[in-house]
Each structure stands twice: as C-alpha cells, then as structure tokens.
C-alpha cells in the first residue's frame, strides 16, 4: 500500500468513524486488509539475516494476527499456549509482536542476564494518558530520570525508616476498620471493599496527611475508589491503538479519551492538595503528620525536593504528580486484592485459620491488640502471605518489558520493540517446580529461602531486576498487619447457603471475580479491644 493510498484510507476512516466507539472484533475485521505486504516483507527480511528464528506460536490471520483469538483471561490463555509451544512463544498482535516467557530459566534471561536490554517498557496508550505522558516510575524509560524517580521512592518515600515514622497512620486506619467491623458483626461485609478503603486512607494520609482532615478526607476516599477501579480496568483492556500505532490518533475505542478524563479528575485533586500544602508553608504551618519534623507528609517532602536547584536530574511538577498517581493507583488495588484473596483462601481451609490464630494468641495474646512490632514473630502468617502471592500474584504478567535492541531468549530472537510478558502466574503454579501446585499450602514457605527480592526465579510476585516493584516494603507491612488484625479480632464465615468461589478475573491487577462477602464475629472478650 503506497503512502498516498495509505494516507487517503486513514483520512476516510477517520471521517467515517468520527464520534463513534467500536468494539475490538469489529475493528479487527475492518483492519484485516491493511498491513499484509509490510508484515510479509518484514518476515522475509528477518529470514535473510541468518539470525535466530522467532519463537514458535499459534497461527494467526493475515494482518490481525492472533488478536481475534485472545482470551480475556490472558494469564490462563498464555499458560495453555506455553504447554503447546514451549517457555518462549510469540503472538502477532496486529503490528506488535508479543512474546510470552513462561519458565524460571527464560525469565532469568530477561530479568537478570539481559536486564539492561529489557529495562524499558512498551508503554500502552492508556498508561501514557494516565501518567502524564509516562512520566512516572513505572513507565518512564530506563535512564537518569527513571533512576532519580526510583531513588526518591526507595530511599525517601518507601524506606523502612520512613515507613516506621508513619506507623501511627497505618495503625489508626486499621483500628478504624476494626471498629467498623465490630459494628457490623453478624452481618455480611464486602471484605475487599473495606480493605481497599483502609489501604487508600493509609496511602493518602502518608501523601498529604497534614493537608486534609475530617469530612474532606472521607470524601476523597469515596471519589478515589471508583476512579482507581476504572483506571486499572482501562489499563488491562486490549486497545487497537497499541497494536496499530498509525491508528492511535483516531482512538477508535475511546480508551485514551476515557483515561484522560479519569486522569483529569485525579489531577484536579492533586492540584488542590499541592495548593493547600504550599499555602500552609507560606503561612508558616508545619502540617506534619504528628507535629514532628521527622513526620513530614510525602507531598511536603516532594515539594521541597522539586525546589532543589543543584539536583543533576530535577524533579518536575509533572514528575511529582506522576509519583502521586503511582502511589494511589499502584498501592491500593494490589494490596487490598491480596488481602481479599488471603482471607478467602484461609476461610476455605479451617486448619490454616486455626494455625494462624494459635500463632497470634501465642505472640499477641487475647487480651491485647496486634501491633506491627508483633509481625516479625509471626512466621506462619508470613507463609500465608507468600502462598497467597504464589497462587494469586497481584500482577500476573508483571508490567510488560520491551527490549531496546534485538536479543536472544531461550535460543529465539526477541526483536527490539516487542512487548514481553513474564507469566509469573504460570511459573508459580508449575507442577514441576511446586508440589501440589494448585493447593493452598502455606507450610511450603515455613523453611524456604524464598523472599520477595527477585533472586529466585521460581517465585517473583513483585518481579525482578531493575524494574522490580518499588513498593514491596509498604505492601508487606500493610498486608501482614491487616491480616493479623482481621484474624486476631474476628472469626469469619460465609453467609448461609454460600460457597467459597476463588475464581480470578484477569487484569493488569488480578482480582477476585466474585467479591468476598463474609460475616465477622468478634473473638476477643474485652470490648475495649475493638475501640
């Protein structure tokens, strides 16, 4: 197709489709005649170079490749394909080549042996729209700006020292949840919803704890929950603009437009918080979390960092807001979904619940409340969290990687610019690695050296290499403290006639398909322990 004809076609397409949203299947049929010659020429060129061949994979249709055959539950679909085609396989996704890696050995090649090559991201249009053009720590290209953002997160915002200094915030929000559950004792409670609000309140308190108070904080929590849910849904939705970049300007499915609207609502809140903080600083108010110098909220710290004139790579206001977006979106769904899966798995296995509660009684006692200082003496609870993340990793395919140059993985060519998925969900359930791999069995981690550091490629729920999740310490504290409190303070049962359903729903963040609704009943005799 010549450039002139292509341009005319696209112009006519834009005119005829303007103002309409179309489903992905319709668009794929519409596009089925556009790119045949270029795909054929590219394959011929690759064959002539004598380089390693592309990985094997299922046959696709001309021009659209495997897009029409994608199952919405990508983690299980990719797992089934790997059984047939092996630990490195390819999928032609329109003009984008997808590569799925499904073994510890090939994951090591991507995330350790060739870490720098794969340290970039293939940024989807929806993510770019949500994060100020991809200016956050998750999507920014590997380089000086990314290193600066990661340093800010790891050393200044999410370090153990900083997290210790805001423990009172976590404690306050978890105790508020306990009080709410005590009032709701005997009645069904949506566990995931309550834990989302708890985690969200903790994170927003850390971000701008001295800036908003009372009813305004509660209103922000309600506003955020729906927006976060909508953002994560859009990030996991197949988008024709990602598979055919030349059509991205048309936004045929309206995903970019929807995401910009969601991001705009967040940006308005961020602007309000920033203005409030700057006003407090101008008026000489400390506004710290507890009045102490070491307890400045994160926004206060970030604004000071932005004003540093001698920084080699300065933090811009856009980068600052992108970090706020990462904290709110990246830290809420992941932690609350993990807590929900853990409670569901434990309720489904009474012997595990008994072991947890015996450990809690030995360490905490029944005349005391759980504190974070108890957590390090609860090895079985640690094993429960690890086993939950083995079966239900928060990001089942991690965040896609993108090689900066052609690279060889598992003996196959992975071309520059490919979208590379690491199927940790499949690796964590591989029966050749894990005995009784589909069983929830926390004991397997009691005497295991597996941790979250990304050094064991059999187990990497937070990823590995340079782009490993920056929020591991925060997630570990929040999940363990919440689980310890929920199981220490309450017994749990399903409503009459209900059966436990552990079915998952795929997304960039894995969630329970059917929300866990359970009935709490207090197990501590002293009512004061619920205040």
A few lines on this structure:
The protein is 49% helix and 8% strand. It is mainly alpha-helical and 531 residues long.
Model description:
This protein has 531 residues and is mainly alpha-helical. It has a single domain (3-530), classed as Cytochrome P450 (Cytochrome p450). It has 19 helices and twelve strands. It has helices at residues 3-17, 24-30, 36-48, 74-85, 104-113, 125-130, 144-157, 160-165, 167-183, 191-208, 214-235, 240-243, 255-282, 298-306, 317-347, 350-363, 379-391, 424-428, 472-489, and strands at 88-93, 96-101, 120-121, 189-190, 401-402, 407-409, 412-414, 419-422, 490-493, 504-505, 511-512, 517-522. The strands form five sheets. Strands 1-2-8 form a three-stranded mixed sheet, covered by helices on one side. Helix 10 runs antiparallel to helix 15, helix 11 (214-235) crosses helix 15 and helix 15 (317-347) runs parallel beside helix 19. The radius of gyration is 24 Å and the shape is globular. The termini are far apart. Mean pLDDT is 88; it is low at 1-19 and 289-294.
- Strand order within the widest sheet? 1-2-8
- Under CATH, the topology is which? Cytochrome p450
**Structure annotation, total helices:** 19
The rounded distance between the terminal residues' Cα atoms is: 71 Å
CATH superfamily membership, which one? Cytochrome P450
Radius of gyration: 24 Å
Q: List low-pLDDT spans.
A: 1-19, 289-294
Major β-sheet profile: 3 strands, mixed
CATH architecture name: Orthogonal Bundle
Keywords:
about 525 residues; mainly alpha; Cytochrome p450; three-stranded mixed β-sheet; three-stranded antiparallel β-sheet; 19 helices; about 50% helix; about 10% strand; disordered N terminus
């Amino acid at each position: 197709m010549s450039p002139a004809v292509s341009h005319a076609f696209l112009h006519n397409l834009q005119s005829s489709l303007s103002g309409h949203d179309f489903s992905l299947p319709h668009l794929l049929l519409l596009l089925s005649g556009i790119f045949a010659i270029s795909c054929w020429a590219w394959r011929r060129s690759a064959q002539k170079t004598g380089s390693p061949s592309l990985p094997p994979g299922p046959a696709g249709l001309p021009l659209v490749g495997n897009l029409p055959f994608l199952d919405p539950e990508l983690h299980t679909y990719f797992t089934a394909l790997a059984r047939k085609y092996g630990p490195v396989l390819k999928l032609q996704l329109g003009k984008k080549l997808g590569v799925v890696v499904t073994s510890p050995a090939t994951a090591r090649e991507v995330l350790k042996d060739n870490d720098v090559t794969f340290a970039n991201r293939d940024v989807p249009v929806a993510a770019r729209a949500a994060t100020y053009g991809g200016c956050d720590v998750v999507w920014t290209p590997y380089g000086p700006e990314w290193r600066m953002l990661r340093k800010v997160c790891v050393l200044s915002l999410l370090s153990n020292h900083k997290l210790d200094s805001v423990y009172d915030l976590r404690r306050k929000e978890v105790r508020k949840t306990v009080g709410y559950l005590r009032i709701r004792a005997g009645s069904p409670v949506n566990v995931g919803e309550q834990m989302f609000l708890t985690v969200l309140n903790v994170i927003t308190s850390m971000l701008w704890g001295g800036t908003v108070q009372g009813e305004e904080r509660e209103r922000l929590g309600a506003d955020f929950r729906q927006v976060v849910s909508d953002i994560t849904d859009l990030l996991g939705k197949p988008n024709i603009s990602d598979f055919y970049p030349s059509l991205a300007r048309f936004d045929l499915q309206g995903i970019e437009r929807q995401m910009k609207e969601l991001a705009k609502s967040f940006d308005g809140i961020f602007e309000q918080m920033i203005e409030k903080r700057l006003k407090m600083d101008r008026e000489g108010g400390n506004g710290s979390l507890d009045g102490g110098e070491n307890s400045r909220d994160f926004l206060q710290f970030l604004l000071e960092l932005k004003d540093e004139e001698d920084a080699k790579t300065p933090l811009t206001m856009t980068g600052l807001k992108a970090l706020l977006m990462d904290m709110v979106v990246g830290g809420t769904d992941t932690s609350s979904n993990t807590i929900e899966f853990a409670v569901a798995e434990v309720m489904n296995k009474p012997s595990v619940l008994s072991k947890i509660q015996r450990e809690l009684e030995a360490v905490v006692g029944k005349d005391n409340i759980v504190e974070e200082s108890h957590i390090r003496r609860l090895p079985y609870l640690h094993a429960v969290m690890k086993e939950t993340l083995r079966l239900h990793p928060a990001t089942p395919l991690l965040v896609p990687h993108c090689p900066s140059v052609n690279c060889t993985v598992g003996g196959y060519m992975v071309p520059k610019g490919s979208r590379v998925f690491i199927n940790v969900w499949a690796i964590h359930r591989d029966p050749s690695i894990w005995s009784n791999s589909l069983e929830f069995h926390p004991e397997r981690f009691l005497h295991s050296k597996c941790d979250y550091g990304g050094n064991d490629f059999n187990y990497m729920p937070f990823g590995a290499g340079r782009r490993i999740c920056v929020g591991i310490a925060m997630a570990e504290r929040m999940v363990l403290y919440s689980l310890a409190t929920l199981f220490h303070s309450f017994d749990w049962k399903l409503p009459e006639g209900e059966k436990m359903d552990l079915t998952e729903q795929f997304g960039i963040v894995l969630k329970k398909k059917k929300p866990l609704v359970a009935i709490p009943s207090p197990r501590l005799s002293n009512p004061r322990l619920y205040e």
